[in-house]
Amino acid sequence: MRTRVYLDWNATTPLRPEARAAILAAYDLTGNPSSVHAEGREARRLVEEARATLAAAVGAQPRNVVFTSAGTEANALALSPGLRGRSGGQVERLLVSAVEHVSVLAGGRFPADKIGLIQVTRSGVVDLDHLKAQLKDGPPALVSIMAANNETGALQPVAEAATIVHESGGLLHVDAIQALGKVPFDINLVGADLATFSAHKIGGPKGVGALVMSEGIGGLEPALRGGGQELNRRAGTENVAGIAGFGAAVKAALQALPEDAKRMTNLRDHLENGLRGIAGATIFADGVARLPNTVLFTAPGLKAETAVIGFDLEGIAVSSGSACSSGKVQPSHVLSAMGYDPAVAQGAVRLSLGWSTEPEHINRALEAWRKLGNTLLKG
Predict the structure, then answer these.
(1) Which pTM does this prediction carry?
(2) Considering only CA atoms, which of 11, 6, 17, 10 is closest in space to residue 204?
């Protein structure tokens, strides 16, 4: 029986050996990280070491890192109406790009009538002129623009957006969950006031995320109350083992980033060249800067649900776009925002690569698509 090929790394990644070792070591500890005795201090040490590791990796101070249960919670925590910048001004509304993850599109704690959408181009890149127009009319805003799209892989102009947002007196939140470990990311270089991350996208465990803030950001109201954990920003006993695994994954991912990014870019380009030659496949967001590991494609008449099942039967794990909690294949809101017809959006298939993806895996995927294309699109 042939070994299965995993090409859904944007949904989740395998656990890195370094993270597994850190998690198992943490499970051997007894103490609560809030306890003052030796056992508690040892658990606290693991949490703070991971906090320092993530902070250093993204250009922040450890005191500005808040661990959460997931990237979704981190996004919800970041989208707070009470946030204040260095000038002391408070944001009164929220603007989000139309291609954000659903956890951002939900708006956090902003009321629905205080949330606006920023348009994107046909290539899935934020329309900065539309952002300027949105900011011109109205009070200071919190703007949320992801660093890299989870479906198309398109890299967003967050540094340029930061300049525009700050000139208007607003704040910028960047969902960097797909960017960390795949492209360099530093909150100072891109001008992010808040950024969010998730452990399981970089080889850490599921169930751990983080909100990172730049210096001078105030007014963050905790979403969970009832304890003083995470510097009073998120109540509840910390997930020591998960956080330790997160820190270990960050170290491993950043150490391997230059080599992994180069190798995945070559594999991605090989995959795309092969796809284009079969059944008239086209690549979304082609021609703009993208993550080195992400390919979203379709072909005339293709149905994503049928294609995903077909790939699965051929031993290849792929996706129709973003991972959906229902487990069902959903039309892509990202492609709809890019101006594609619903019939096209329903036919998009995503293949995403990772650090253990090999040329043979790409060849297997192309072999499967050649077979599926001839079968699914016949006539």
Answers:
(1) 0.95
(2) 17
- Check which CATH number belongs to the domain holding 190 and give it: 3.40.640.10
Per-residue pLDDT, 328: 55
Distance CA 205, CA 199 (A): 6
Alpha helix segments (H runs only) across 59-202 = 71-78, 102-105, 128-136, 158-167, 187-190
One domain for residues 30 and 122: yes
| 316 neighbors 4 (Cβ within 8 angstroms) | yes
Within this chain, do residues 365 and 237 fall inside the same structural domain, yes or no?
A: no
Q: Tell me which DSSP letter residue 15 carries.
A: P
Structural domain containing residue 42? 17-251
CB-based contact 5:317 (threshold 8 Å): yes
Q: Of 24, 189, 231, 324, which one is the catalytic site residue? A: 324
* 124 CB-contact burial (10 Å; exposed 0-12 / middle 13-18 / buried 19+): buried
Domain end point (choices 227, 251, 275): 251
- CA–CA separation, 131 and 347 (whole Å): 29
pLDDT of residue 325: 43
For residues 42 and 32, what is the distance between their CA atoms, to the nearest angstrom? 9
User: Is 336 among the catalytic positions?
Assistant: no
Q: What is the pLDDT of residue 227?
A: 83
- Which residues of the chain are under the pLDDT cut of 70? 1, 321-330, 378-379
pLDDT digits (tens, 9 = 90+) for 134-163: 999 889 999 999 999 999 999 999 999 999
* Nearest partner of 179 among 194, 209, 163, 201, judged by Cα: 201
Residue 283 CB partners (closer than 8 Å, separation 6+): 272, 275, 276, 295, 296, 297
Verify that 233 and 193 share a domain, yes or no: yes
**Is 335 in the same domain as 245?**
no
Q: Which segments of 28-83 does DSSP mark as H helices, in order?
A: 38-58, 71-78
Query: What pLDDT is attached to residue 85?
Result: 84
How many folded domains does the chain comprise? 2
What pLDDT is stored for residue 322 in this prediction? 52
pLDDT on residue 326: 44
Q: How far, in Å, CA of 267 to CA of 273, rounded? A: 10
